[in-house]
Amino acid sequence: MSEQNHENLFQQKVDNEIKIEPKDWMPEKYRKQLIRQISQHAHSEIVGMLPEGNWITRAPNLRRKVALLAKVQDEAGHGVYLYSACETLGIDRTELLDQLHTGKAKYSNIFNYPTLTWADIGAVGWLVDGAAIMNQVMLQRTSYGPYSRAMVRICKEESFHNRQGFEIMTVLARGTPDQKQMAQDALNRWWWPSLMMFGPSDENSPNTAELIKWKVKRETNDEVRQRFIDRTIPQGEIIGLTFPDPDLKWNPARNHYDFGKINWEEFYNVVKGNGPCNRERLQARVKANEDGKWVREAAAAFAAKKAN
Ligand code: BYC
Asked: Cβ distance 153 to 75 under 8 Å?
């Protein structure tokens, strides 16, 4: 069969909502795009453990500690599902991790900001997991089978994370004036970076058109960002917090909230490695990889001995 025929058949499958599986023919660019997106997603999960892990020993009580511990552990699991899904595309996990450690691969902008107070853990669960879910619910219907199936499980766990974050924010917002101020300060700092998580606006997103055509992404960055805003504003209002955007206003004609301009210069600066915590995050991952080397070597030696 000619390359063109293969490509037509592939597109027909995608259009008919038939999942693409690892052994199916796929355009080389589809494979590359998936490796880029899934690995960036996997890296985000494991780097995302760092800002939250920072608060495990300082959680205010046992109940909070147990929930946070479980959440951070879940993120490690998500990384594992996603690296496995990525490996079905013919790339090795070691290579993917090398790309992370050498700064070649991206991970989500959001994890380059510090978690300064306990309220940040609430804000991360509410806003960061909230934004991640909004994106991931759409990705449950992505055209690549292994990615889609990983997303179904991840979404279930992320919903729990989101509720645990909102509950922390609710308790603080209804607590003492100092606690309320702490929650408000966390919202002020995390709001705009959370909106950036959905990626650049559609007119500046080089990958969106191709990803939509192949149904890797089912909606554009701006569409998912708008849904997140529409869903989140009433939640903040209900607990008495205000959003740090003077242009935020319900627009009945659009049936959506209007919002202010996102600082894209900040986004690109963070993505290029110049955010407040980029260096610290990468160093922590490189160190974890080096510290775990003896475990991987021992496991490989054990497996080789068993095979003989
Ligand atoms: N951060 O053409 P575009 C989580 C890059 S965390 C950094 O629109 P695309 C969690 C993009 O890679 C959520 N870089 O890209 C974990 C591209 O550069 P390259 C992680 C970003 O792919 C722990 C360039 O900008 N979720 O779950 O069409 C605790 C142009 O962008 C970002 C995922 O990764 C960003 N935010 O759309 C709690 C979901 N955005 O690669 C939560 C899977 C864009 O061409 N990924 N860039 O050099 C996606 O859905 C899509 O890849 C994106 C971007 C919507 C993120």
From this structure: no
